[in-house]
């Protein structure tokens, strides 16, 4: 079996669902269930014996060590993190705690478990760390896309904490021989995306008749990847990645934020027109920019494509259509995640 951390979040949740749709290998899913963790995402696995959910903090060394000893996973995939840049600006402490200290404790638990494995299991074991392109910093418009050898230049508390975790993972390989793999992916989008992030926020605000907040001039560029393509890349790296290597994951889909928002508005105009007949784009509102806002990210996924034969299945056009349709047809999930604490965040961030 495999052990996944953060499997009640956006990418981890999609990963667990996809994994069990394609394989009977059980998953132990360890998640603290912060505001971003949501068991509704995993509702279809409620009576599925292949999914074992444990509410726990990756920083709880004793409990994680106990789980490893009990279930003897052949791999650990670490999705657990605080992941929202704006939250890292208003409250960086949790990011240091989970992304840095939590990853350190997790590595120590895993090292203890792995050290005691018999030779064959020890050689086959993998620790796959899921990271981000934001560790590489920001690109000028004519810079080449990030390759795996790009220097780390993180600019936000979030990206700095992820960079620190990547360095710890690297060091645990070089110093202790822990068989690690690291993936650095660009912006994901798709089903079960918590609506504090741009794409789901815009879809839901549009439908609710609310402002569509564009930070600054909206010309910042992000490189979008449909979440299921990220999941397939992780499966491929786990299966065939070279121990100690890092792999960039991306879909060659660079878009300015404003274009993304206009695309979503157009799709909603076609699928669920406003009752007053006006365009959803009229709800676009320019708001104060994010402090230290990175201008452009772009991932060169050539290594993963060349060496492991991975390719994304979706273009931005097909992926965004699936995403908009998913939100239109999953209002129950939306209602559950947008109650309570979510409202407090939106009030604090956009008032
Ligand atoms: P998310 O915020 O949706 O989910 C994070 C999950 O981790 C939640 O279920 C949360 O409850 C859990 N968690 C948080 N702290 C924990 C702790 N201390 N112990 C156990 N569980 C904890 O995040 P996401 O968007 O799914 O991102 C998953 C991973 O992928 C993160 O490491 C993130 O840095 C990375 N990543 C995200 C993107 C993206 O576009 N979303 C892109 C590249 C990489
Ligand atoms: O690049 C990968 C990263 O992508 C991941 O590591 C992070 O976990 C993930 O949250 C994401 O970070 P971003 O900051 O790029 O995503 P976000 O959806 O928050 O913002 C996307 C862009 O849209 C960014 O340039 C900021 C802008 N934005 C965002 C929000 C929430 C707005 O203009 N208005 C908004 O209200």
Automatic annotation (TrEMBL):
UniProt-recorded name of the protein: dTDP-glucose 4,6-dehydratase
Species of origin: Iodobacter violaceini
EC number(s) reported in the record: 4.2.1.46
Gene designation per UniProt: rfbB
Top-tier EC class: lyase
InterPro entries attached to this UniProt entry: dTDP_Gluc_deHydtase, NAD(P)-bd_dom, NAD(P)-bd_dom_sf
Tree of life domain: Bacteria
PANTHER family, per the entry: DTDP-D-GLUCOSE 4,6-DEHYDRATASE-RELATED
GO molecular function, one term: dTDP-glucose 4,6-dehydratase activity
Cofactor(s) it depends on: NAD(+)
Domain (NAD(P)-binding): residue spans on this chain: 3-323
Assigned keywords, A-Z: Lyase, NAD
Family: Belongs to the NAD(P)-dependent epimerase/dehydratase family. dTDP-glucose dehydratase subfamily.
Catalytic activity: dTDP-alpha-D-glucose = dTDP-4-dehydro-6-deoxy-alpha-D-glucose + H2O
Keyword NAD attached: yes
């Amino acid at each position: 079996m495999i052990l996944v951390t953060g499997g009640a979040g956006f990418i981890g949740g999609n990963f667990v669902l996809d994994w069990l749709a394609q394989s009977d290998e059980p998953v132990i899913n360890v998640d603290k269930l912060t505001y971003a963790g949501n068991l509704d995402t995993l509702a279809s696995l409620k009576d599925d014996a292949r999914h074992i959910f444990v509410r726990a903090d990756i920083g709880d060394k004793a409990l994680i060590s106990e789980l490893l000893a009990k279930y003897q996973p052949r791999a650990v995939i670490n999705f657990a993190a605080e992941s929202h840049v704006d939250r890292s600006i208003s409250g960086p402490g949790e990011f240091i705690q989970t992304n840095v200290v939590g990853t350190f404790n997790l590595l120590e638990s895993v090292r203890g478990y792995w050290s005691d494995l018999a030779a064959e299991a020890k050689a086959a074991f993998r620790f796959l760390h899921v990271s981000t392109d934001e560790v590489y910093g920001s690109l000028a418009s004519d810079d080449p896309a990030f390759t795996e050898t790009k220097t780390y230049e993180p600019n936000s508390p979030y990206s700095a904490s992820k960079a620190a975790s990547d360095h710890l993972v690297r060091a645990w390989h070089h110093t202790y021989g822990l068989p690690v793999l690291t993936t650095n992916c660009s912006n994901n989008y798709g089903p079960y995306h918590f609506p504090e992030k741009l794409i789901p926020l815009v879809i839901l605000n549009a439908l609710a008749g609310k402002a569509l907040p564009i930070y600054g001039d909206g010309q910042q560029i992000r490189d979008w990847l449909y979440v299921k393509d990220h999941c397939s890349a992780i499966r491929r790296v786990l299966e065939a990645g070279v121990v100690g290597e890092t792999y960039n994951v991306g879909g060659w889909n660079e878009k300015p934020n404003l274009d993304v928002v206009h695309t979503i508005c157009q799709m909603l105009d076609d699928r669920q027109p406003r009752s007053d007949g006006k365009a959803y784009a009229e709800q676009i509102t320019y708001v104060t920019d994010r402090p230290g806002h990175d201008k452009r990210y772009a991932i060169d996924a050539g290594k993963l494509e060349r060496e492991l034969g991975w390719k994304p299945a979706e273009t931005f056009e097909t992926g965004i259509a699936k995403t908009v349709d998913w939100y239109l047809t999953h209002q129950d999930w939306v209602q559950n995640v947008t109650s309570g604490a979510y409202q407090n965040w939106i009030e604090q961030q956009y008032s």
